[in-house]
Amino acid sequence: MPDFLLNALLAGLALAVVAGPLGSFVVWRRMAYFGDTLSHSALLGVALGLLLGVSPTLAVTVGCVLLAVLLVALQQQRLLASDTLLGILAHSTLSLGLVTLSFMRDVRVDLMGYLFGDLLAVSSEDLAWIIGGSALVLTLLVVLWRPLLAITVHEELARVEGLPVATIRLALMLLIAVVIAVAMKIVGVLLITSLLIIPAAAARRHARSPEQMAIGASLLGMLAVCAGLSLSWYQDTPAGPSIVVGAAVFFLCSALLPRFRSSPASATR
């Protein structure tokens, strides 16, 4: 296997493993639009990273984390409805990133790569960032799994039981921000949320517990990565969109299969 293909496979599998359980919380808590907002802001992070002369991956990570904190602060002010606020920030940050890049005439930027991903161009340095970030997020998810599940099932009951609901919610948003920053190199800023949502939605239909759904989403994501890379290798299609297409095919197959009996995972609805 060529080195660049091995790097792409390892990066995709590392992301799929952590995107499964994190995407499950995105589906349960209906946070898809929040993920879109962070993914759109990633392009602004790229522009600022190039402008300041720092690593674009580091700039995107810091930018996504700061935007997640800003979103939490603005939502607590209740000045606007959450969906309105997310829509304003999503399109504003994406447009600001494109405008900033247009002023940098001396810098050549592969805009299509950032928008739609360039998995086959993952370097050893990128792979280290992806594996390190995914391992950190997965470790924190394991530690916070029960509190996150508690505030997802019944937030008011979790608050009565003494859980720091606001802190746990912020931690979840920060984890999503880190994964989106890490995943930008693989599927691009316009397709990141798809990799979080589609495998989790496919696994939800047949899971009998939240843990089964999280594991199933990770496995489906890994299969989608393998299928997408195979399609890209043999048919010369773009790797990032091919992975999303693979995930969509698995979701369609899941929807056509007979549904298992109702389970504790349905309580998160």
From TrEMBL:
Its main location: membrane. It holds the Pfam family ABC-3. It is a multi-pass membrane protein. Gene3D superfamilies: ABC transporter involved in vitamin B12 uptake, BtuC (1.10.3470.10). It is found in: Cell inner membrane; Cell membrane. GO terms for cellular component: ATP-binding cassette (ABC) transporter complex. Involved in the high-affinity zinc uptake transport system. This is High-affinity zinc uptake system membrane protein ZnuB. It comes from Azomonas macrocytogenes. The lineage of its organism: Bacteria, Pseudomonadati, Pseudomonadota, Gammaproteobacteria, Pseudomonadales.
